[in-house]
Amino acid sequence: MDQNKRRRTRIQVEFTVKLSKSGLSVMVETQNLSLKGILCNSVEGFAVGNICEVSIILSEDVVIHIEGKVVRSDESGLAVDFIVMNEVSFTHLRKLVQYNSTDADAIDSELTSPAFDA
């Protein structure tokens, strides 16, 4: 997708996250992250349309839990669109994105517009 059409800033980050779905859990490296989704390296066992949980482990006590839907799965990576997260996870995600962004204030300003078409 053209970067200009994206409604959320993507940050280039490389860390390990856990993806889980119906009895399958894998650790995978990220390529980029936004408030709306994540792009990871390719992983087998996850197909477009699968609902999964993304766990971003910040520390032993702080884990961001997000329910998502796989929207792309090919040799270039696995893209997960975020569907549901609780308020605490959202707060941690927002701070993670802001900390790694070149313009932290822009992240908050993005929250004033919808991430999806009506």
From TrEMBL:
Q: Which residues form a coiled coil?
A: none
Question: What InterPro entries does the record point to?
Answer: PilZ_domain
| Location of the PilZ domain | 4-97
Any one Pfam family match given in the protein's UniProt record, by short name: PilZ
SUPFAM superfamilies in the cross-refs: PilZ domain-like
GO MF entries: cyclic-di-GMP binding
Record protein name field: PilZ domain-containing protein
- Recorded source organism is Desulfovibrio gilichinskyi
